[in-house]
Amino acid sequence: MLAVTAVFYVKGFIEKEMLEIRYAQYPLKYMDIVEKYSEEYGVDKYLLLSLIKTESGFDPNAKSDAEAIGLTQITEITFDWIKSKMRPDEEYVFEDLYNPDTSIRFSAFYLSKTLERYSGDKDTAMAAYHSGWGTVDSLLEEYETEILTEFPYPQMANYVYKINKAYSSYMELYVNTEGEI
């Protein structure tokens, strides 16, 4: 009987530790900023968190080989477009994307426009966030469809997979069937 009790204790301990590891892998960093801008621009806060986790691993100083910067890895060309649509009168410079508030704000705006452009389809929108609207528009035209159900480029497919994996994990950890935990 003692051995059975010990097994259940060890099993419970391991399950608790594994859950703690998952929470650490999918943190709610910058949640006050994420909630503010996800609400302002009408995007799912867990999708925005998934994007940040996938793009930078929550490192506000991240910089990619493509010269995309900040938490949400926006390129200078995309930054200029977002600024022209969102805040043309404000004095922002590209390097302001290293500031978490600015990065999340600009990304939430851009994500809302991307989702709108692709009829709210998360996978198509995320492919476009990664590879650009022009690339996705060309694929939609080529496939004669409104949304992408397959992703012909390995990097694009991997990116959409990572976003979906992160999103599923966030939903599993922080949202139950009755609402948020």
Can you describe this structure?
The protein has a single domain (28-180), classed as Lysozyme (Orthogonal Bundle), CATH 1.10.530.10. Residues 6-11 have low confidence and may be disordered. It contains eight helices and two strands; from the N terminus they run ααααααααββ. The chain starts with a helix and ends with a strand. It has a two-stranded antiparallel sheet with strand order 1-2. It is globular, with a radius of gyration of 19 Å. Helix 3 (45-56) crosses helix 8 and helix 6 packs across helix 7 (133-143). The chain has helices at 2-25, 31-41, 45-56, 76-86, 100-117, 122-131, 133-143, 154-174; strands at residues 175-176, 179-180. By secondary structure, the protein is mostly helical.
